[in-house]
Specification:
It is globular, with a radius of gyration of 19 Å. It contains twelve helices and 13 strands. The strands form three sheets. The protein has a seven-stranded parallel sheet, sandwiched between helices. A three-stranded mixed sheet has the order 7-10-12. Helix content is about 40%, strand content about 20%. The protein has about 325 residues and is of the alpha/beta class.
C-alpha cells in the first residue's frame, strides 16, 4: 500500500486504464483525468473507473490552463499519454510545465520515435513525431522522467473494416489480414490492457535511479505477420492467412489519421524501417519489468472473441 498520488491523463484509453486499475489496486490515490469527449465515447470504462476505490475522476479540457494547474497539485507521480484532441504539442508542454511546478517526482510519458529524425530518408509519422516533440521538451525543462514506447496493440485486431488491422472474416470461416509489413520480418506486440499497468508500476517502483531519462520499449513479443496469423489459427482453430498489400480505407477516418496511415505504409512497407528506430530494442527490458504478459495466441483465444462479441459479431457462436 502507498499514500502517493498518481496523475493519469487519457485514463479511458487502453494504456491509462491499465495503469489506473493496477495503481488503484496497489493503494495509490489515482487522479484520473478524462476529457468530456472521451468520457462520452468510452462510457463503459469511465463508469468502471467511477466505481473503483482509490480513483478520483476529473473531467475537462486539457486546453483549460486552470484545470491543468490543479491536476498535479500534491501529486508525486504521473503517467501521461497525450492524444490528438486539440494541439497535442501545446497540451504536452502545458502538462509538463504544470507537473514541474507542482514538484512531481517521477513523470512517465508515453512517447514514440520520429523516424524522420534518424537521417535515413524515412518519413515522419505525424501522430508519433508530436509525441517525440513533447518528449524533447520534457527533457529540456529538466522534469524527472522516463519515456515508454508502446508496441503494436494486440487489441487493434478486429473483423470490422477498419484500416491496417482488419482480420477480415472469409466466407469459409477463416480470417485474412492484409497490411504492408514484410510477411517474415518480426515487429513488436503488446497487450496494452493487460500489460501496460504492471510494467509502468514497476518502473515507478524501480525509480529514477534506474530509469531517469530512459526510453523503454514496452513490447513482449517480436512476431512476424505470418507468425501472428499462425497464432490466431492455433487459438481459434480457423485458418488465418497474411497478405502483404496496401492499406485499404473502407470507412470514414479523420484526415490526420489518413496521413498517418500513408506514412506507415511508406515507413514499414517501402522502407521496412525498424519499428522503434535503430536504437531501441525489445523485448528484454519489458520482460525485466513484468513477466506475466499476455501473448498473441492467448489474446486471440481468450480476448479477441469477447471484443468481437462486444462489437456485435456472431462468428464465434
Amino acid at each position: 500500500m502507498t499514500n502517493k498520488t498518481l496523475v493519469i491523463v487519457n485514463t479511458t484509453g487502453r494504456q491509462g486504464a491499465s495503469v489506473a486499475r493496477v495503481a488503484a489496486a496497489l493503494g495509490y490515490h489515482v487522479r484520473a483525468h478524462v476529457t468530456t469527449k472521451l468520457s462520452e465515447k468510452d462510457g463503459a470504462v469511465a463508469k468502471e473507473l467511477r466505481e473503483m476505490d482509490n480513483i478520483e475522476l476529473i473531467e475537462g479540457s486539457l486546453e483549460d490552463s486552470s484545470l491543468v494547474s490543479r491536476l498535479f497539485v500534491g501529486a508525486q507521480r504521473a503517467f501521461i499519454n497525450t492524444i490528438s484532441w486539440g494541439d497535442e504539442a501545446a497540451i504536452g508542454r502545458s502538462l509538463a510545465d504544470a507537473a514541474k511546478k507542482a514538484g512531481v517526482q517521477h513523470y512517465i510519458y508515453s512517447s514514440m520515435p520520429d523516424h524522420g529524425a534518424f537521417g535515413q530518408g524515412w518519413p515522419t509519422l505525424p501522430l508519433w513525431s508530436v509525441k517525440f516533440t513533447v518528449e524533447n521538451y520534457i527533457r529540456q525543462i529538466g522534469l524527472p522522467a522516463t519515456f515508454v514506447y508502446m508496441g503494436i496493440y494486440n487489441n487493434n485486431f478486429t473483423s470490422l473494416p477498419y484500416p491496417l488491422f482488419c482480420m477480415k472474416l472469409l466466407p469459409g470461416g477463416g480470417f485474412e489480414w492484409t497490411a504492408p509489413f514484410h510477411p517474415d520480418k518480426p515487429i513488436p506486440w503488446l497487450d496494452a490492457e493487460h500489460d501496460v499497468g504492471p510494467a509502468v508500476l514497476q518502473v515507478f517502483k524501480d525509480g529514477l535511479r534506474k530509469w531517469s531519462g530512459s526510453r523503454i520499449a514496452l513490447a513482449y513479443e517480436l512476431l512476424s505477420p505470418r507468425q501472428v496469423c499462425n497464432a490466431f489459427s492455433r487459438a481459434l482453430s480457423r485458418p488465418c492467412r497474411y497478405v502483404r498489400g496496401p492499406i485499404t480505407i473502407e470507412v470514414p477516418i479523420p484526415s490526420g489519421y489518413r496521413t498517418q496511415l500513408e506514412g506507415l505504409e511508406k515507413l514499414f512497407g517501402k522502407h521496412e524501417a525498424p519499428y522503434f528506430g535503430p536504437d531501441i530494442d525489445a523485448p528484454d527490458e519489458a520482460l525485466g519489468l513484468w513477466e506475466g504478459y499476455r501473448g498473441m495466441e492467448e489474446y486471440a483465444r481468450e480476448v479477441f472473441p469477447l471484443e468481437e462479441a462486444a462489437n456485435g459479431m456472431t462468428w464465434m457462436q
